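Open question from group meeting: does this chain pack into something compact, or does most of it stay loose? Before anyone orders reagents, we agreed to write out a predicted structure and look at it together. Recording both the input and the output here so the notebook holds the full record.
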Amino acid sequence: MTPSSSVRQTLAANLRRERNRRGLSLSELSRLSRIGKATLSQLESATGNPTIETVFSLSRALDLPISDLLETDPSGSVTVVRAADTEVLSGEGVDLRPLRRIQTGGLIVEVYDQQVRTDGRQASLGHAGTEHTIVQSGRLDVEVDGHLTRLGPGDYIAFDASIPHGYAAPEGPVRSVLLLQYRTPRSQQDDDESAVNAPH
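Structure tokens returned:
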């Protein structure tokens, strides 16, 4: 599935911001992320088609949460996310729908609806954060650092997401909930605390 123009534009703006904030050239980011310079240029101009693999590689290279690249900021005391209104980010074997970013204290948690297809294996070299997966239906194979675990409905797994890992659904499609947990960078915590404690 091709990402919509809104996803491409959001990623383009956030990627440019994060790369410039770090003082990285396209060539330097290409080396860190293992993504071609031409592809990065297309992503920054909102003409490329980002995949899960691309976004996770950028997250790893820039050491930031996925939602910092794809963030849409919900507001209000009640949040409802309709399946039909959510952009799908596809990879070799997984379709991800971002549902919510939760930030509290020194933690950020991203909530995703994750569907693992039977037509491919979703592999990751690793990225920032801790990964949590809860299987809703189907049988899910999770490989972490070369060790395979098979999960069924209701089963849960958590691991350091910086370790190479992968997902596969050998017996049919799998529906699961993916949570990505990050620690807030110290500088951001200090900024947040300063803003709270500043005189009004």
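Observations to bring back to the group:
Confidence is low (pLDDT under 50) at residues 187-200.
The helical segments are 5-21, 26-33, 37-44, 52-62, 67-70, 186-197.
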